[in-house]
Amino acid sequence: GAVVSQHPSWVICKSGTSVKIECRSLDFQATTMFWYRQFPKQSLMLMATSNEGSKATYEQGVEKDKFLINHASLTLSTLTVTSAHPEDSSFYICSARDDSGAISTDTQYFGPGTRLTVL
Amino acid sequence: GDSVTQMEGPVTLSEEAFLTINCTYTATGYPSLFWYVQYPGEGLQLLLKATKADDKGSNKGFEATYRKETTSFHLEKGSVQVSDSAVYFCALGDYGGATNKLIFGTGTLLAVQP
Question: Which of A106, A107, A109 to mutate: most B Cβ within 10 Å?
Answer without folding.
Answer: A106
